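Morning F.,

Quick status update on the modeling queue. The single chain you submitted on Monday has been processed. Sequence for confirmation:
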Amino acid sequence: MNVQSIFLIVPVYNEGRIIKSVIVALKKTGYKNIIVIDDGSSDMTFDVVKKTGVTVLKHRINRGKGAALKTGMEAAKQFHADVVVTFDGDGQHDPKDIVKLIYQVNKGYDVVLGSRYLTRQNIPWVRRVANACANVFTYLLYDIWVTDSQSGLRAYTKKAFEIIDTKSDRYEVESEALRDIKKYNLSYIEVPMRVRYTRYSLTKTTKQNLWSGFLTMMRLMLSK
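Structure tokens below.
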């Protein structure tokens, strides 16, 4: 697949300390079409991203990851993307894993999901428990089973991102996308991805934890 038709969508909120290194690492893999959505950051994130030369969009207020992803998806459509890859901006993902997703897209899958749990990794127990609960809850609600329902590293073909219609502005977006994969009978596969937990990423107050995971599940149930 032509790399020029692949767009990376990176939602960020107050990632001024780390986002430049994330973008530099993404560029080194050969992917030049990068769309960063600054979700109302109060730090220097927007100015840092502007200096990297990638496309950057900004929400006036913090709306949530789901809203940022939707903004990025709409922008990718305007650029006539054939594939979009969502990539968290906190430095946890490894840009080298993107090629695994694209490989499966080239094999014909509509959606490719990165999973932290298909290989042995040192993942904090709180994250494991929260994700396991989310997996079970997503399965009970939408009858689709994956090992990492909250993964932020995903690839969607044009067929998929034009038909998936998430409503949530926050973290429910990951499970809502799985709902639509099931609803529209999109083909999907999980691939192992590496995750890098650092002191910085683990102290981010905007990341999922047991309490926010519970709130996410409640919002999903109420919106069903």
